[in-house]
Amino acid sequence: xxxxxxxxxxxxxxxxxxxxxxxxxxxxxxxxxxxxxxxxxxxxxxxxxxxxxxxxxxxxxxxxxxxxxxxxxxxxxxxxxxxxxxxxxxxxxxxxxxxxxxxxxxxxxxxxxxxxxxxxxxxxxxxxxxxxxxxxxxxxxxxxxxxxxxxxxxxxxxxxxxxxxxxxxxxxxxxxxxxxxxxxxxxxxxxxxxxxxxxxxxxxxxxxxxxxxxxxxxxxxxxxxxxxxxx
Length: 231
Description:
Elements: H1 2-11, H2 18-61, E1 67-69, H3 75-88, E2 91-95, E3 103-107, H4 115-122, H5 129-157, H6 163-171, H7 173-187, H8 194-197, H9 203-230
Antiparallel strand pairs: 1-3, 2-3
Helix pairs in contact: 2-3, 6-7
Protein name: Sperm-associated antigen 7 homolog
GO molecular function, one term: nucleic acid binding
């Protein structure tokens, strides 16, 4: 019986020691501090949001402002400002290389930034519309000059001038035609154009030429035979 009672007493939870009580007290204090910090953080967010809503409202009502740039702020503040801007119907962007330098810019919908303007802000540059217009014109001019230069080189490489018409008044039609063929062949480094190889005579002209050659040959043969008989 005594052994059973002792076993029951030993199995019962022992009262907390001084060390356990201290640990629990510290845990309660830490939980209270965390709760207080969360409440303080929540309060600060609410105050910051209220402040941003007031500034955004003033910005919208100010017709002289097209955009607004804020000082660098933390990630949470930027998130709140972006949310307020979206609710208000504005366009917002964050710029800055690192977290410490990140800032927000707001734009009214009718003055939304162009890709060139956004690229300037991303590079850390100030946006100058006049300077951007000058750069755009210079790029367009350079592109036109490059295209004209390419067209000139193409024209020089493949001339389309008619040498026969160009030189006919100087050396005659037939000679000009031969000169044209010669110049074209030289430009092709000895490669004679297919057009030069083509017989441009009509079928009738070609047949007449063949008949004339045959007739001439018969006459020559007849003359030679007569001379042989006479001798």
